[in-house]
Amino acid sequence: MIRDLLKIIINVCLTFFIGNLNFFVVFSYWLFFGESMTGTNIKRKVRLENKKKKMAALLDIAKLNEYDRAQKMKNAGKLEQTQLATLKPETEPSPKRIKTEESQNNQNQEEPVPEPPPLIGDFGPSGKPKLVGQELTDLKKMLREKTQYLRNLPQFRLRELGDNASLNVSINDRIPIFLSDLQHLILYSQIGVHSPYSPARWCALDKYSRLVNTNVLIVENISVYNFMSNECMFPFLSSTFEHKLEMITPASYNSDIVKDLSMVPLTGTHMRKLLNNFGTLETAVLKSDEIFDTVKNFFPIEQPEDDETSGRNGEIHPNDKFPRTQLLLSGWQMVEENFPLPIKGLMERKYQGYTLTKEKYKSVTPFSPMVAIDCEMCRTSTGELELTRISAVNEKQEVFYDTLVKPDNQIVDYLTKWSGINKKMMKDVTKKLKDVQNDLKKLLPDDAILIGQSLENDLHALKMMHPYIIDTSVIYNITGDRSRKTKLQTLAREFLQEKIQAGPAGHCSTEDSTACMKLVQLRLTKQLYFGDAVMGGVQNELRTYPEMGTSQYATSMLRQAVKVDKTVNVVGLDDIGLKYKFYVDKGQDVSVKNVTCSSEKSNKEVVAKFCASLGEHSLNIAHLRVAVSQLEGNNGRILKNVDKWVKEVYEKTSGSSLVVVLFGGQTEGNGVCFLKVKKEVR
Question: Any transmembrane segments, and where (predicted)?
Answer without folding.
Answer: 12-32
